[in-house]
Amino acid sequence: MITTRILHSSEYPQYARWLKRLDTESRATYFGIPQGDDQIDHLVKGIIPNSAYHHFLVAEYKGQWIGCIHMAESALDEVEFGVIVDVEHRGHGIADRLMTEAIIWCRNRGYRSLYMHCLSWNLPIKHLCTKHGLLMKNDHGETETKMPLLPADLRTITQEMVNRNKNVCCMLLQSTMPFLSEVYG
């Protein structure tokens, strides 16, 4: 079962460790240019003291990270997303699920606008943006996307609570599965 959760700021160093395990092409696609381990460490060291402006929604499978959205506050009411899923788990709707949950999370916290920067040749991310209603603007080989976010409503607040509770139940079930298989063979 795939679960998602918002990281606590004490877990932000795990973001750097996970990124450094990704292949070179995934890193270059995510950041727009190739990034070495030192550059990733430098980036995360800058995020940690400013954790109020950075949030991470991660997707996990069997306790291992398989995808992440970095949500960075770029203005008082605007948030920028960076989406990445590891190579082995692409094409299974993980980025779509992360995007859906992250948009709800941001609406529920009063963000009014969502922004993403995409490489023009990154067709999967462009498809994801289009699917979620982000308008694209091409400029010299790069694509910027933007979308207004509606205010929170009863549906978004309820959906966030349902998602959170579903994920907690799935994590608890996964942690008891070895025990249950021993008991019930």
Mean pLDDT: 90
**Using DSSP, what is the number of strands?**
7
Distance between the termini: 20 Å
Number of helices: 6
Poorly predicted segments: 180-185
Tell me the CATH topology.
Answer: Aminopeptidase
**Count of individual domains:** 1
Determine the CATH superfamily.
Gcn5-related N-acetyltransferase (GNAT)
**In this structure, how is the largest beta sheet organized?**
7 strands, mixed
Beta-strand portion reads 25-35%
Q: What is the H/E order? A: EHHHEEEHEHEEH
Secondary structural class? alpha+beta
CATH first level: Alpha Beta
Q: What would you note in describing this structure?
A:
- The structure is a single chain.
- The protein has 185 residues and is an alpha+beta fold.
- The chain has a single domain, classed as Gcn5-related N-acetyltransferase (GNAT) (Aminopeptidase).
- The chain is 45% helix and 28% strand.
- It contains six helices and seven strands.
- It has helices at 12-21, 24-31, 37-47, 94-108, 123-131, 154-184; strands at residues 2-6, 54-61, 64-75, 78-85, 113-119, 135-139, 142-148.
- It has a seven-stranded mixed beta sheet with strand order 1-2-3-4-5-7-6, with helices on both faces.
- A hairpin with a 2-residue loop joins strand 2 and strand 3.
- Helix 1 (12-21) packs antiparallel against helix 3 and helix 4 (94-108) crosses helix 6 (154-184).
- It is globular.
- It starts with a strand and ends with a helix.
In short:
By secondary structure, the chain is of the alpha+beta class. The chain has six helices and seven strands.
